[in-house]
From TrEMBL, chain A:
It catalyses: a ubiquinone + NADH + 5 H(+)(in) = a ubiquinol + NAD(+) + 4 H(+)(out). Its EC number is 7.1.1.2. It comes from the Eukaryota. GO terms for biological process: ATP synthesis coupled electron transport. The chain crosses the membrane at residues 6-24, 36-55, 81-102, 114-131, 137-157, 169-188, 208-230, 242-264, 270-291, 298-316, 322-344, 365-383, 403-429, 450-469, 481-503, 580-599. One of its GO terms (molecular function) is oxidoreductase activity. Residues 65-115 form the NADH-Ubiquinone oxidoreductase (complex I) chain 5 N-terminal domain. This is NADH-ubiquinone oxidoreductase chain 5. Residues 131-415 form the NADH:quinone oxidoreductase/Mrp antiporter transmembrane domain. One of its GO terms (cellular component) is mitochondrial inner membrane. The lineage of its organism: Eukaryota, Metazoa, Chordata, Craniata, Vertebrata. Keywords: Electron transport, Membrane, Mitochondrion, Mitochondrion inner membrane, NAD, Oxidoreductase, Respiratory chain, Translocase, Transmembrane, Transmembrane helix, Transport, Ubiquinone.
From TrEMBL, chain B:
This is NADH-ubiquinone oxidoreductase chain 4L. The keyword Transmembrane helix applies. It comes from Felis catus. GO terms for molecular function: NADH dehydrogenase (ubiquinone) activity; oxidoreductase activity, acting on NAD(P)H. Its main location: mitochondrion. It catalyses: a ubiquinone + NADH + 5 H(+)(in) = a ubiquinol + NAD(+) + 4 H(+)(out). The keyword Transmembrane applies. GO terms for cellular component: mitochondrial inner membrane; respiratory chain complex I. Core subunit of the mitochondrial membrane respiratory chain NADH dehydrogenase (Complex I) which catalyzes electron transfer from NADH through the respiratory chain, using ubiquinone as an electron acceptor. Part of the enzyme membrane arm which is embedded in the lipid bilayer and involved in proton translocation. InterPro entries: NADH_UbQ_OxRdtase_chain4L/K (IPR001133), NUOK/Mnh_C1-like (IPR039428). The chain crosses the membrane at residues 6-22, 29-49, 61-81. It comes from the Eukaryota. Belongs to the complex I subunit 4L family.
Amino acid sequence: FTPLMLTAMFILLLPIIMSNTQLYKNSLYPHYVKTTISYAFIISMIPTMMFISSGQEAVISNWHWLSIQTLKLSLSFKMDYFSTIFIPVALFVTWSIMEFSMWYMHSDPYINRFFKYLLMFLITMMILVTANNLFQLFIGWEGVGIMSFLLIGWWYGRADANTAALQAILYNRIGDVGFIMAMAWFLTNSNAWDFQQIFITQHENLNIPLLGLLLAATGKSAQFGLHPWLPSAMEGPTPVSALLHSSTMVVAGVFLLIRFYPLMEQNKTMQTLTLCLGAITTLFTAICALTQNDIKKIVAFSTSSQLGLMIVTIGINQPYLAFLHICTHAFFKAMLFMCSGSIIHSLNDEQDIRKMGGLYKPMPFTTTSLIIGSLALTGMPFLTGFYSKDLIIETANTSYTNAWALLITLIATSLTAAYSTRIMFFVLLGQPRFNTLNLINENNTHLINSIKRLLIGSIFAGYLISYNIPPTTIPQMTMPYYLKLTALAVTIAGFILALELNLAAKNLKFMYPSSLFKFSNLLGYFPIVMHRLPSKMSLTMSQKSASMLLDMIWLENVFPKSISLFQMKMSTTVSNQKGLVKLYFLSFMITLALSLILLNSHE
Amino acid sequence: MSMVYINIFLAFIMSLMGLLMYRSHLMSSLLCLEGMMLSLFIMMTVAILNNHLTLASMAPIILLVFAACEAALGLSLLVMVSNTYGTDYVQNLNLLQC
């Protein structure tokens, strides 16, 4: 069991190590990487099967790294339920994405470096997932952040890409503050960074570290306060968006919260906070997704919306359901990104859905997978998304929780259906709106194979995973029929509404956008306001306080200048010398008279 | 003091008042200065003649000489002022510098 797992992970390291040799230089390097990942996937399926059949978890602690006073850090991998199931899923999705990017980045001269970056990202993600102590998790955490920066700014000549990469790093950093705070709290209060020790000892008040972890998840998984980096991260190439920002990196934050579920079970405040945060995120990003015009941005917002849904699931104390949603979501989201990538490339790098249309006939395979992916996303019964999303909505409906958050989640679910309909309507249906000289060809085997694999995964993976995992928290079995049908009902309502609106407004004149439209289109004004205002205010405040307040006012103005000013004013008010000689004579005479009267002593 | 002296002394005081309290023309203070000199001269002469103080008989004449010099000085000042300002109003003399 354990050697196999380690072999799987070691195989991934091989292409990186080979990068200095001859193998890196030739054009078959992408093939090597792809086959490496496929072998790693197959090898990692074996321990997964063993785990499913026996339910046996393992912890591999290899190498005692260092001891800082009383803290012992070692290289330890934790193969429990979460990591054992996540690794094959992630490897499968990454395999498909690697194959896809062999087609997509075919004309890029630095394709070898691209694959190396993707592989390094995968390795750091593996480190994150299998980490048994917080330090190793932090290594993986930072690693995925760095690789995200390098990959988003892949086309570094473009200024938007550079700012997007920097934005990603900054927002992640703010989340890292929370992570480090949690680490510090654990270090001071339980003297360990190992999960086993943290979960066994009983703490009385866990608010601070859980707040820190929530902040970290907000940063990494783009929850409401720290969300603008995710739509901006679409500046990277489509495989990057598919891998990082749909399946693996953005679930790192959710994964962290899932890892700490024994601590979160006891703390009701934390659960309420996560619930409300997830609900706000879901609704807000779904609203923003409704009026975007860039296909990748719509899918990015749908990612954030689903992430919000995962956080909501954690908030209702169902970590296993959230994990299930992570795994199933990876399939169809990656496929959606790959379909949009194929559309973009075929239309000669056109990303605006207002300029696409009528792709139903020229690209049948992409059309099929787009429709199936959107249906899986919205939770069509018996496709993949159903097994996780519907369960989440049911559990939320029947649990004793915050009704407002629940309502918002339901509204967001219907909006999911709405924007998916919008994508399909604009991209696939209607008359073509693009340039007519594009050769639309989706005949490449790499493209077809990778999308086909993920397509089969989207359809069947939900069923396969749900029926083969070891038993976890039991979902609610009995509920009134209207609650059970809620998710389906709101989704269908969203579909129909969006379809009707789109059909009705198809040939109308374009009117000036209402303020609600502007709110939705400009991401709720959040990036516009928050990027400029706080930084400018804090900088001017610090400048004013440092230079104006201390130097100029206190040192200069209080004593020296005020004294001189005071004296001048006083002297001009008191003294009335006018230079008129008449007054001098008068004063002489008055003095004389006064002295004669007063000093009349000889009489 | 006899009546004569008081009378002349009063004249002196009157001229002093006039020297110190004048309205607008500088000339009037110079005139009062002359009046002071005059009353002083008269008082000196009468006192010397009444007391047969012949040794000091030249004092009034010296006083007259000095009075003349000082009147000349005053008049030259007046002329300077009049050259600058055109008139001799004392309101003009309000510059505190040379």
